[in-house]
Amino acid sequence: MRSLKTWQIAGLLGALAALVVVVKYGVGTFPSWVYLYDIGRNWRDPSLAPLMSPPADYLQPNFALAWIAGVLDLLSASSYFIFHLFFALVAVMLPFWMTSVRNQPARGRLVFILIAGGPVAAMLVMWANGYDALTVIGMTIGALARRPWIAALGWLLASFNHPLIGALGFVAWAVIVFVRPNEVQRWWRIALGAAAVGLGWLANERIMQAWGGHTSRNEWRELQGLGDFWDLLWPAMPLVLFGSVGVAWLILMHPQARRQLWIRVMIVQAIVAPIVISGLTLDSTRVSALVLFAPLLLTVTAISADLGEEISGDMWRWWAIAAVIIPVPLIFSGKLYHLSWTGFAELDSTLQPPEGYELLR
How many CB atoms sit inside 10 A of residue 214's CB? Predict the structure, then answer.
């Protein structure tokens, strides 16, 4: 039998990862999707969107996908949802198509464990019409692009779409770039990436000022209160730590992997970031998973280069099944989430506007 080419293996792994997460979690809607949809309906001036009054306008800085949907007039319930689901699936499969992964099947197999067994892909399909897909796409390019200027464009996109997550994710990624001994062009990559993050954040802030400003996430959190959140958080801390990394913990804790200083630094980040972030935000595992996504991508792809393909093959044989069958729970807004196939059946009800809002057609 003719052996598969590397790009064919990459395509199959990406498609399999997308299939796995859809089967494990179903497909659901982002709880606050209609507020973002309101931006699309009023894309010429989102400051006039009727649902975007404070405190709901804390979502306004994450306008990009909703704005594009409005420009393209994809504003029926089905077209808006399918548009966002497309980008969510692209974000799931993109890491496998990056050159540094596509040409190295051993790396692709470790990326499969990270994606199929991790929280980020779960979030993308469970809350398909949210705004995280562009952030994940930007971080994937920023973490894996071989050319520093292309990586910088990825960080620009991530920061522009979600300034705080883009900045925190960049810092976590830059730490691994700095401490990994075999990383090439480290200073150039970090410098260009930092400039791109700053430019993306500045561009987002300028647009928000032009639209009249917005409620900060801290203000929104204060309005929501943290009582119920704290009651859930500390008893669920093991779930927070697992839900921020997923099955990739098995890769990080491999005896030969954790001997490397840069992997030990990644382990420290994977412990510290969820604890700190959980103390500051209601949607704890969502934020910590996004912040850790880029450094984890770099770590799992670098393992095969630094430790050899034989170890990568062993990891694939031992843990690919775990990535396929183990679900990753998410803590969001003080609640524990794990969706299932029921998400498909609930789309008719969740894709309805609030009472009195008749703009959907």
Answer: 23
Domain ranges of the chain: 8-349
Q: Partners of 335 in the beta sheet? A: 332
Distance CA 50, CA 250 (A): 47
Q: pLDDT digit string (tens) for 303-313? A: 888 887 788 88
Antiparallel, parallel or unpaired: β 330-332 and 335-337:
antiparallel
Does the N-terminal peptide bond of residue 55 adopt cis geometry, omega within 30 degrees of 0?
A: yes
What is the distance between the alpha carbons of residues 7 and 102, in angstroms, rounded to a whole number? 6
**Which pair of tokens denotes residue 188?**
């150039």
Q: Cβ neighbours of residue 117 under 8 Å, at least 6 residues apart?
A: 246, 247, 248, 319, 322, 323, 324, 326, 328
pLDDT of 1: 37
List pLDDT tens digits, range 336-360. Answer: 776 666 666 677 777 776 555 554 4
In the chain, where do the E strands start and end? Answer: 330-332, 335-337
Confidence of residue 168 (pLDDT cuts 50, 70, 90): very high
User: pTM (2 decimals)?
Assistant: 0.91
Judge contact between 88 and 128, C-beta under 8 A. yes
d(CA 290, CA 18): 18
Alpha carbon distances (Å) from 132 to 135, 254, 255, 286, 330 = 5, 30, 33, 10, 15
At position 310, the amino acid (one-letter code) is: E
pLDDT at 360: 44
Nearest of 106, 91, 103 to residue 294 by alpha carbon: 91
Contact 97, 234 (CB under 8 A): no
Closest CA to 231 of 336, 328, 123: 336
Return left, alpha or beta for 260; rule: phi > 0 is left, psi -120 to 50 is alpha, else beta. Answer: beta
Phi first, then psi, for residue 179 (nearest 5°) are -90, -15
pLDDT (0 to 100) of residue 232: 56
CA proximity to 154, closest of 214, 100, 197, 92:
197
Note the pLDDT tens digit of each residue in 197-221: 999 999 999 998 888 877 776 666 6
